[in-house]
Design brief:
The chain is mainly alpha-helical. It contains eight helices and six strands; from the N terminus they run E-H-H-H-H-H-E-E-H-E-E-E-H-H.
Length: 264
């Protein structure tokens, strides 16, 4: 089982806030209110998800704070040059997926560890006092939840990105390499599950890019095809996939099944 994660939603969405920061900076307007809103949104999330694990919540918050400092440095350059470059918007807007994916991966590892500890207590299994730390990636039935930055795998021909050109062979080879690398770090009994960022990718030169808006659904379809998966489930804010835009085609129909190519 592999999970593709979008940026944190709500109103306004994290991706919209990040893109608006770049626009404001290009106009030499104050970005701090938006940066503060991004920080507060994630701070609230971490406080709710990790109420009994302040250490883990603080670790994740420190990552987000450092990333926001990096973004602030980028925005200073945008402001000085009055330049809302496409490449800069791509780089900044992808941070939302990095944060939400790291948060979910950490949450799953923590819950796996808790489940394993409860199982050991119920089963009367002896605890291992010799280990100073418990590796939270290999518990609860040996399920290992591993964070995966999609830029390590999904590769696009950026000159043709608007046509949705994925370098399938390159992406497939990268996924196989990453899977082998991460699996080698785990016990032989562990089941590896990737928690992967949606939306972001790399171009053929290894430079970070994105799959454009709503790219996380696209990322899921790409990963499903690379894995030759039996199916993907998309949790989103609509009930079905239609044959057309109902605002333009009133008699459009619900698609009962969608192939990966159609989903792309």
């Amino acid at each position: 089982c592999m999970v593709v994660v979008s940026a944190m939603g709500g109103k306004p969405k994290t991706t919209d806030l990040l893109l608006d920061c770049v626009k404001l900076a290009a106009d030499r307007r104050d970005v701090q209110p938006l940066m503060g809103a991004i920080l507060a949104k994630h701070e609230t999330c971490l406080r709710d998800l990790f109420p009994s694990s302040a250490e883990e919540g603080n670790r994740l918050m420190s990552i987000i704070q450092q990333d926001l400092r990096d973004i602030a440095d980028i925005l200073k350059t945008v402001s000085l040059m009055k330049w809302n470059a496409h490449r800069i918007s791509e780089a900044v807007s992808g941070y939302g997926e990095l944060w939400s994916t790291k948060i979910l991966a950490a949450l799953l590892r923590q819950r796996a560890l808790t489940a394993k500890q409860e199982y050991d207590i119920d089963a009367g299994a002896p605890s291992d006092d010799d280990e100073d730390e418990c590796d939270a990636t290999t518990d609860a039935g040996e399920h290992a939840f591993v964070y995966l930055d999609a830029r390590r795998v999904i590769t696009v021909d950026e000159d043709a990105i608007e046509d949705g050109v994925i370098e399938w062979t390159i992406s497939q080879n990268k996924l196989q390499d990453v899977y082998a690398q991460e699996l080698a770090k785990l016990p032989s009994t562990a089941r590896l599950h990737f928690i992967m960022t949606g939306y972001v990718a790399s171009n053929t030169n290894g430079v970070a890019t994105t799959l454009q808006r709503d790219g996380s659904d696209y990322s899921a379809a790409i990963l499903g095809k690379l894995l030759q998966s039996t199916g993907i489930t998309i949790w989103t804010d609509v009930d079905v996939v239609l044959t057309a835009d109902p605002r333009r085609v009133p008699l459009c129909q619900v698609l009962q099944q969608v192939s990966y190519n159609e989903a792309r």
